[in-house]
Model the fold of this input.
Amino acid sequence: MPSGAHDMALAVEILLPVKALTQAQTSLTLLIERAASGDTAAFEQIMIHSQQRVMAMTWRMLGNEADARDASQEVFLRVYKYLGRFKQDQDFFAWLYRITINVCRNFAKKRQLYSSRFTSLTADADEGAFAVTAEEDAEEALIHTQQRELITRAMATLPEKERASIVLRDVEGLPTDEVARIMNSSSTTVRSQISSARKKIKIYCEHYLRRKERSQ
Done:
């Protein structure tokens, strides 16, 4: 679908060699074990390793930097508090995303941010999702920016669960089954939420473009 959820699926994925990926996972496991035992230096390394993901996710869910930073701090406070309950057979980032979603939900309820202040999908840690390459000329860059802003407005109209599902699936690139685990839902429900979100984004974009054409 043009300039809709399809664009969000174009996030750049960095594919590491299996050996490097295994080493990174082993390193993270050791850090988690040390941090759970009270090693603050190890916890700081976990924060450094994951803070960009958390900040990008809170930004997409809450829509502005100030709230995203406050929510990110709350996320890591909860991670520090509950790290001892983390099981090593779990996926750490899935666990982290679940905490992040819950924190953002609480922030949105308290500050009534579901739709009124959602302003941007992008952050410094999210360069790949809507990146404008150096080769694009000024006109293409402007079109790209306008498309991104349109998707942003469309995303703001989505219910919280649909927004979270489509961000995790189409922006973060997580498998549907993993999104379901993070959302404490079923794969069928998540597929339905994603499908509904994509349709709503497409309809919103089409209506906007038609209104724009009529006004010209």
